[in-house]
Every structure is written in structure tokens, then in C-alpha cells.
Write a structure and sequence with these properties.
Protein name: VOC family protein
Pfam family, one: Glyoxalase
InterPro entries: Glyas_Bleomycin-R_OHBP_Dase (IPR029068), Glyas_Fos-R_dOase_dom (IPR004360), VOC_core (IPR037523)
Number of domains: 2
CATH architecture of the largest domain: Roll
CATH superfamily of the largest domain: 2,3-Dihydroxybiphenyl 1,2-Dioxygenase, domain 1
Organism: Paenibacillus mellifer
CATH topology of the largest domain: 2,3-Dihydroxybiphenyl 1,2-Dioxygenase, domain 1
Structural class: alpha/beta
Mean pLDDT: 94
Radius of gyration: 16 Å
Order of helices and strands: EHEEEHEHEEE
Number of strands: 8
Distance between the termini: 31 Å
Strand order of the largest sheet: 1-4-3-2
CATH class of the largest domain: Alpha Beta
Strand content: 35-45%
Number of helices: 3
Length: 140
């Protein structure tokens, strides 16, 4: 089996607020909230890149679907990496995230490994690293 990730779902407390952050604040394209006609079905999808989508789904709905209890969220469970094409793009994304309501936890800085990165938390506390790696080339 070849590993393949197609959807990354993050749990949110307030789906409308999370939608506004990613759509209006960061400018990510979405068709908005879909599946509202189904109990526990409301979700918002964002196309990130070929073959990968971000889904925002209420934490209580994830718990319902998986049969697990909703536990206290922890921002240090994982980080999400948003790799960009330049140092200036790191700065731009961090400024845009902060203007949209993100909390900057680590301002952009040169890293020990030769890159440039910073961290922010979205309104639900999910930790994003915005990073430029000089070894990785991305289409702009």
C-alpha cells in the first residue's frame, strides 16, 4: 500500500468562525459549509493542492462519528506546515493570519537549518508553521 493523504480534517468548536478565518482571513477558496441537511454532517472543504483538501468539522461531530468522547484540545499534539516560496511570503502569510485573528506564537525568524519560519494558532488553537525551505521549490 502506498501512503496517500487526501483529506486533513481538523476539529473546530465554531464552524462559522473557522470558515471565516480560513476563507475571509486567509483567502482560501471554498464552497462554504456543505452537508448541513445531515445531523453531524456540516463541514467546510478547502482545496490545498492537487489531491489534498483541508476539512473543518465540529469536534463534537468528529466525536460522534468516531464513537469517542470530546477531550480537551491540545495545541501541541501536531503542527500543520504551510510551505511557501520565499522569506517574504512567510512574512506576508503571518501578517495575514494575524490580521484574521490568529495568535502569533513565534514570529518569523531564520532557522538553525537555513530556512525561515514562524508559528501561529488559528481561532481553535491549531498550530500552523509557515515556512520557507531553500531546498524545496514550489510553484508560485
Amino acid at each position: 500500500m502506498k501512503p496517500r493523504m487526501t483529506v486533513l480534517t481538523i476539529g473546530v468548536e465554531d464552524l462559522e468562525r473557522a470558515l471565516r478565518f480560513y476563507r475571509d482571513g486567509l483567502g482560501w477558496a471554498t464552497d462554504g459549509i456543505v452537508g448541513q441537511e445531515f445531523e453531524h454532517g456540516a463541514v467546510a472543504f478547502f482545496d490545498l493542492q492537487a489531491g489534498l483538501r483541508l476539512a473543518l468539522w465540529k469536534r463534537e461531530n468528529i466525536a460522534h462519528d468516531t464513537g469517542l468522547k470530546v477531550n480537551a484540545p491540545s495545541s501541541t499534539e501536531f503542527t500543520l506546515g504551510h510551505n511557501v516560496a520565499s522569506k517574504s511570503e512567510v512574512d506576508q502569510v503571518m501578517e495575514q493570519a494575524e490580521a484574521a485573528g490568529a495568535q502569533i506564537t513565534v514570529p518569523p525568524h531564520d532557522t538553525f537549518w537555513g530556512g525561515y519560519s514562524g508559528y501561529f494558532q488559528d481561532p481553535d488553537g491549531h498550530l500552523w508553521e509557515v515556512v520557507w525551505n531553500p531546498e524545496w521549490v514550489f510553484e508560485t
